[in-house]
Amino acid sequence: MCAIEYYTYDDYVHWEGKWELIDGIAYAMAPSPMITHQALAMQVAFELERSIENCDKCLVVAEEDWKISDDTVLKPDVSLICDEPNEAYITKTPEIVVEIISKSSSKRDEKYKFKIYESEKVPYYILVYPDDLKAKIYKLKDGKFDKEGDFFDQVYKFEGLSCSVDINFSKVFKKFKKK
């Protein structure tokens, strides 16, 4: 008989390296994402930051802990948070969560985190695919994520958020397109 160890946030805060905690199960994150992964996350963050430059309520953060519960702590690649009262970690549901898909994280991002973000009522979930230079945007409608579309070079304007927000995917992917 094999026993799976159950962890909580109190355990998590003492671990070295990058981890996520989903329903008490620890998941090690890759030691260092590929350069394209990090650069795309930065490009999305720059676009979001540009968009909210006149908004005093919201912040764009990268790889920040989101403590969902005592046994679930995620570290989205990029998040748009608004009116967050805590300095140590994210406590309120972000308005936008972005995950850059890599081979090692695709199942976690597309299935497990998808379900968690949906159940936590994240208004928008964006999956960015570096190999395809594509972003899939999901919008929460009636408690379920509904795919808004695949975006390659379009501008997407988000609705119903604390601040006016848009992302120009032409700018996000510009440096990565083969000439």
3D structure, described in words:
This protein has 179 residues and is an alpha+beta fold. The protein has a single domain, classed as tt1808, chain A. Helices cover 22% and strands 34% of the residues. It has four helices and twelve strands, in the order αββαβββββαβββββα. Strand 11 and strand 12 (165-168) form a beta hairpin. The protein is globular and about 50 Å long. The N and C termini lie far apart (56 Å).
Quick overview:
30% of the residues are buried. The protein has four helices and twelve strands. With 179 residues, the chain is α+β, with helices and mostly antiparallel strands.
Classified in CATH, the superfamily is tt1808, chain A
Query: Distance between termini?
Result: 56 Å
Major sheet strand order: 3-6-7-8-9-10
> What structural class is derived from the secondary structure elements?
alpha+beta
How many strands, what sense, and barrel or not for the largest sheet?
Answer: 6 strands, mixed
* Overall average residue pLDDT: 93
Q: What's the level 1 CATH class?
A: Alpha Beta
**CATH topological fold name:** tt1808, chain A
- The poorly predicted ranges are none
How many structural domains can be distinguished in the coordinates?
A: 1
Helix content, binned percent = 10-25%
Using only C-alpha atoms, the radius of gyration works out to 16 Å
Order of helices and strands: HEEHEEEEEHEEEEEH
DSSP strand tally:
12
- Which percent range describes the beta-strand content? 25-35%
Taken from the alpha-carbon principal axes, the silhouette is: globular
DSSP summary: helix tally: 4
The CATH architecture term is Alpha-Beta Complex
Keywords: Endonuclease, Hydrolase, Nuclease
InterPro entries: Nuclease_put_TT1808, Restrct_endonuc-II-like, Uma2
GO molecular function, one term: endonuclease activity
Domain Putative restriction endonuclease: 10-144
